[in-house]
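User: I need a structural model of D-aminoacyl-tRNA deacylase from Dissostichus eleginoides for a docking pre-check later this week. Nothing fancy, just the predicted structure tokens so I can convert them on my end. Input:
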Amino acid sequence: PRSRAWEVRRVAPPTTTTMKAIIQRVTRASVTVGDEEVSSIGRGLCVLLGISVEDTQKDADYLVRKILNLRLFEDENGRAWSKSVMDRDFEVLCVSQFTLLCVLKGNKPDFHAAMPAELAQPFYNSILENMRSSYKPELIKDGTFGSYMQVHIQNDGPVTIELRSPTGPSDLKQLSKQEKQQQRKEKTRSKGPSECREKGAGRYRPDPNASSGADGDVSSEREP
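Assistant: Understood. Predicted structure tokens for D-aminoacyl-tRNA deacylase:
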């Protein structure tokens, strides 16, 4: 017979819901309500955004920053994954989609993890304003909150990224640390080997008493 301890181990821990975005690189996308096209973009990103009951302004700020800075486009030389939507002056179409917070109960979807509409609408509008103030407002488009919409997406690639906001302060600190490390690596790569050598040579001061290696002793050249 199964023990009580075994049954306890089998119980799944409670999950924390967070804001979720499905980001698609597109050649064009549009939103239609009824027979009327309410919004459309050319090349850029189509973002389906789900807001949870536990989301805060920090979650919104994190997602806005990541969406606008994701390197999903090629540069002028055709090098893939090099430029963000802001680097290329492309457009962004945001569509509120509470179904992203779906939790299945058997085969039936449950949406209690999604923020109620009366709270989600001002929160969603603040995300749009944040995105417009961080980029070019005329390039940020959206659908019609709470309406029954048809979203037409021509995915380019296809490229689809799933993005979630951090679940707590410790996650935010870890992500911030990782982002800073990545930025330092990118700066080092962008300088190129010749520039790095020049800077290294400027900082190095050889010891006049050090051996040249002619007697079998090799002195190491290390930066301070």
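Before docking, keep this in mind: Residues 3-15, 199-206, 210-224 have pLDDT under 50 and may be disordered.
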